[in-house]
């Protein structure tokens, strides 16, 4: 093998990579948060909703989980703009990622909500809590605690999947890599660097989820036992 | 601009054959590499366990898209012709092996410990234990999650389009370039993916339910 590795372009282009990684973080943190909101609402609809709501939420989950994210992104970006709704690449990226994250979160949170025992709901009833209070104080947090590891891995998967938004030229990390490699012809080196950055981001996100879990789940923090 | 026609739809459906072929390559390749990974993960040797763990962390911590680019351009560095099918096949093999390895490790570990002890008492060696006692039982546990993972494989083959392999997603882009009706075309493409994936999803769920019914 006579190939010589050459990472010299880094001296000049590293700010591009930092900017790309920063946009990746912004896009994905926003999508994870919004997707979690959408997913939780849909999960509540799937468990406690009427037949129509249940079906709607179920259809949403099946359609999104059985089609590729790439095509979802194309439909949001190219499809909607051809129908007259022009969104920027970044907004389209967040929208598509949110819809995607929402569908997976629905299934995860549904499992959590279904694991809450009936007696808990009855007890809340006896205490005179309203439906909304019951859901907020009795159902959601313990449900989330039970499925928190799955939520965390789904968040990391979404962060990695956000690389696909480079295909609609959202200037995140992967798009930056594509740009730099077409300027420098150092394709392999560029993607090795980006792979390392993504690995670091995965670790960072896992750490972030762990920290949020510590703050959120007081009972676990105090007792140190899983629910 | 060309009018969108029935022929375009035929073209898309035909391109779906490549999606299926790529999925089969990914699954077979992933299974061949993934089984040793799973066995290494439960091995007694710390070194083997560490290597398999590192491999899984590496692949699961990088986007598949980047793995695709690395194989595509990496092949070029090694002096081979840049063939999108080879690069895609390799990448999906690496990718599927990491996930299947981790799924199957869980299945192997789910076989009760007493089965190991009993086969030990019968004087079976390690190979015999795996071949006749552990793996056949792990296989039964492994089928539902493996079918579920196949959905991920089919969907992710759409990424091969970015290195120029003409499968369903790329075919959709090609049709879109000549007709410019993105909403209709990509909805059709999504529908074809749905037709491929939904039966697998339903099968995975049904198998899962049946497996649980058998246990209780």
From TrEMBL, chain A:
The keyword Membrane applies. Signal peptide: none annotated. It comes from the Bacteria. GO terms for molecular function: transmembrane transporter activity. Residues 21-209 form the ABC transmembrane type-1 domain. GO terms for cellular component: ATP-binding cassette (ABC) transporter complex. This is ABC transporter permease.
TrEMBL record, chain B:
Its main location: membrane. Pfam families: BPD_transp_1. One of its GO terms (molecular function) is transmembrane transporter activity. SUPFAM superfamilies: MetI-like (SSF161098). Signal peptide: none annotated. It comes from the Bacteria. Keywords: Cell membrane, Membrane, Transmembrane, Transmembrane helix, Transport. It is a multi-pass membrane protein. CDD domains: TM_PBP2. InterPro entries: AA_ABC_transptr_permease_3TM (IPR010065), ArtM/GltK/GlnP/TcyL/YhdX-like (IPR043429), MetI-like (IPR000515), MetI-like_sf (IPR035906). The chain crosses the membrane at residues 20-40, 52-73, 85-104, 183-201. Residues 16-204 form the ABC transmembrane type-1 domain. The keyword Transmembrane helix applies. It is found in: Cell inner membrane; Cell membrane. One of its GO terms (biological process) is amino acid transport. One of its GO terms (cellular component) is ATP-binding cassette (ABC) transporter complex. Belongs to the binding-protein-dependent transport system permease family. HisMQ subfamily. This is Amino acid ABC transporter permease. It comes from Reyranella soli.
